[in-house]
Design brief:
It is built from 2 helices and 4 strands; from the N terminus they run βαββαβ. By secondary structure, the protein is α+β, with helices and mostly antiparallel strands. The chain has a two-stranded antiparallel ribbon. The radius of gyration is 11 Å and the shape is globular. It starts with 15 loop residues before the first strand and ends with a strand.
Length: 78
């Protein structure tokens, strides 16, 4: 389970985030490319854009469920 206290600084402010347990597998970027990006230098994913539509919400949820190390979190705060 993702740890809010360990989230990357690059995450856009909002309820979704990626924490430091990310292994840079790229699964979230492939699932929801509008919302996740890969940090080229540090080699980890982050939330580049918070979901803004039902479609984006569904893809971000799918990415969260598919994350092999559960590095994607939803703190429920907008």
């Amino acid at each position: 389970m993702a740890d809010k206290s360990q989230k990357w600084n690059e995450n856009k402010s909002g309820k979704m985030y990626v924490d430091q347990s990310c292994i840079a597998c790229d699964a979230c970027v492939l699932t929801a490319p509008k919302n996740f990006s890969m940090h080229e230098e540090d080699g980890h994913a982050f939330v580049a854009k918070q979901p803004e539509s039902p479609e984006e919400e569904a893809l971000v949820k799918e990415a969260m469920e598919g994350c092999p190390v559960e590095a994607i979190g939803n703190d429920g705060e907008g």
